[in-house]
Design a protein that fits this description.
There is one protein chain. The chain is of the alpha/beta class. Among the domains are: 183 residues, Rossmann fold; 196 residues, Nucleotidyltransferase, domain 5 (2-Layer Sandwich), CATH 3.30.420.240. Helices cover 34% and strands 20% of the residues. It has 17 helices and 26 strands. Strands 7-8-9-6-10-11-5-12 form an 8-stranded mixed sheet, with helices on both faces. Strands 13, 14, 15, 16, 17, 18 and 22 form a 7-stranded mixed sheet that branches. A 3-stranded antiparallel sheet has the order 20-19-21. Helix 2 crosses helix 4, helix 4 crosses helix 5 and helix 8 packs across helix 9. The longest helix has 16 residues. It is elongated.
Length: 548
Amino acid sequence: MVRAQNDTYLGNHNLKAAGVQQEFSKEQVEEYVKCSKDPLYFVTNYIKIVTLDEGLVKFKPWDFQEDMLQKVHDNRFIICKFPRQTGKSTTIISYLLHYVLFNSDVRIAILANKQVTAIELLSRLKLAYENLPKWLQQGVEEWNKGSIELENGSKIIASATSSSAVRGGSFNMIFLDEFAYVPHGVAEEFFSSVYPTISSGKDTKVLIVSTPKGLNMFYKLWSDAQNGRNEYVPIEVNWNQVPGRDEEWKKQTIANTSEEQFKVEFECDFVGSANTLISTSKLKSMPFSDPISIMRDGIKIYKDPIEGRNYAMSVDVSRGQGIDYHAATVVDITSIPYEVVAVFRNNELPPAILPNLLDKLGTKYNDAFCLVETNDIGGQVAEILHSDMEYENILYTSVRGHRGQALGAGFGSNSRLGVKTSTSTKRIGCSNLKNMIEDDKITIPDYDIIGELSTFISRSHSYCADSGHHDDLVMTLVLFGWMTTQPYFKELSSFNIREELYKERISDLEDNLTPFGIIDDGVSDGEDTFRDDEGNVWFGDENSPWST
């Protein structure tokens, strides 16, 4: 390899070339030993960073950054929930530099939601490296835009987070920056392909740092860490722990941005989408749990079927081309609250195979009543399930003019398999699903569903997934919400959800009303009432708004 004069790497006077003999003074040897043993000492005395106001300065960690450095050093798995502009990435980069300098033959991956972000993080590390004294440096073997390699055999690469980013490689440490902003499917694929390699080592580390963005995989990892369900050590920082940030700063920041943006980026509110179908307060309080088992075809089981109980399965069909998902949820409808007991989601399964899976799942749950959405190729799936698989409990709908679709058992010339999602069915389904969730009439243990609900937002007089997100699982519950409003549903379960919600709300209203007496003016003879076609009793004339 060609070297420039003065033993520098390719003419860069800030870098020492590989193979250069280094003479140490007694003081330098003592300093080198101190740095190797104590990352915080190394960072506070030798790391330099660029600031907006002062340019290149020595890094002076705040108290929470010092605590972060120590926890990263002492633990294998770290997850950090930090506000914006708290120096979270700089702190981790400083530790990575210490790790690569004082450990031989280690490999580190810096991964971010975007390639350009990962490369920018590596450039910060390279800047800090170039400003180290030569006696602290290792000789440089490679110094590229996306990677560096040192003569002690250690190497760092920078890449976008993806399932293939570090596949096939052996890494001692992986740093995942802004992991909450990695698309959900990519995040899942990454962990399924990379985590087994990382966890197999005894000293390997995974560092996850992010500002929250919705109820996604970062949210699940963070929640599991807080509840002791995984090995990650959670580190949380509040915006006011940064020197200079007080209530006045908060007011000014909100004035320059928005309250919603401040909640997400500085108060680390996981529920970032506005105008969600389900209230943000409810979304934050919805607990999730791990499935008790996951079947080979990816079906997540939260509760095994119980003999004698009734189940309903709602299905949303995609084209299985890696974009939208096939989705199915199984709900125990025997009693209230209803309970989601099994969940399936897959975006690669060919539609022709889906009926086999649905037949297997429905049969497992006591021949669950199955409602398939038939807007696109769902009609073909429903037909195969009914005709070829001979699944008996598939549900039908019939069109009743301006009254729309009605759920039924398949009798009548205008009956058809499944249901077509129309403006009316979606509106009714969304409304009833909202009521059921917010009034605790249905329990949802699946974090994928909860994550989709956190990005299921109002748009053009309807609800749909926010850009970059999916709503396939939510739509199965929207179908279920519509199903529960149908008279035929009363025959499938022992409860009428609308009546139950109505009775409870009327009871709440009555409890909150001030008692009042009945005044008899001696004129009314009790005939100022009438009964409508549905059996409701009305007081006053037919234009009166009051009824019982």
